Amino acid sequence: MTADRTRASSAPAPGASPTGASPSATGAPAAAAASGSGLAYAVSAYGLWGVLPIFFLLMSPSGPFEIVSWRILFSLAFCVVLLAVTRGFPAFLALLRQGRVVGMMSLAGVLIVVNWTTFIVATLAGHVVEAALGYFINPIVTVLLAVLVLRERLRPVQWVAIGLSAVAVLVIAVGTGSVPWPSLIMAFSFGAYGLVKKQMGGRVDAVSGLTLETMAVAPVAAATLVVLAVTGIGGGVVFGSVSVLHTLVVISSGVVTAVPLLLFAAAARRLPLATIGLTQYLAPVLQFIVGVVLLHEQMPTSRWVGFAIVWAALIMLTVDVVRTSRRSSRLRHAVAAGG
Hints:
Layout: H1 3-8, H2 27-50, H3 52-58, H4 64-85, H5 89-96, H6 99-124, H7 128-148, H8 156-176, H9 181-200, H10 206-231, H11 244-268, H12 273-279, H13 282-294, H14 301-338
Helix pairs in contact: 2-11, 2-13, 4-6, 4-10, 4-11, 5-10, 6-9, 6-10, 7-8, 7-9, 7-12, 7-13, 8-14, 10-11
């Protein structure tokens, strides 16, 4: 039994029965506080990710590979500053001596870079709604990983909602007339990233973890910038040659990248993976709004039908979460009162 599973069991897993050993009077409030803060972290992370397409459009005329490379390098610089401010270097250096931790965080770094690159390519190509589709598929992947790998359980209503989401994705995919490879790559890469973060959450703090991730892929990012500058592929490297505003936006990409990832890491350490999967709908909803309302992307009938089904599933999930939260709260109060 891993430390993550032990910690996750302190809060009611989706679908878990409230029977079994009674928590202590002090344990129940602590579990409730961890669950509440974890949910706040998750909502904040996905809310920020939901509006990222706007930020990346501000980085044009930089190409997707230049943007990803600068994101990595400036994120690493930001993490180093955070380690200095929080005096986290001793803990970070201790992690560097643990081969498995370094390996897992390196894998997480590769997965998130794959996700970033696919997302930015889709955004700059004017396919923000397609990117949103990828993040609608992602919770399904995450929940399946939670069930298959971590043995977490879902309530029946949640299974129905996930099934509806799967139908919605199928409707949207069929409507496009082709396999939505970018959406699938985004969904599976971030689903696997979330699993890695969940598995390592008890051993690696958020800042150290993100530092290890970006440090692992930083050499590739630096090499990519050199190749782009020398060959001029994809427009080459335009950082510092467009405008002051563009330069500042690119530099700030480190903070904009790191903050939601740190929030996500904090959420992954406090919530069951299935719960994290269900909160992920916030990001694609916001991206959908950006794509349709702000960028005026085309929405054929099949997409409208698919998104309508997804919204129906979201309503079901919201009602179920509220009801379950109220029952859990009443149970904790009853246990605390009984001593």
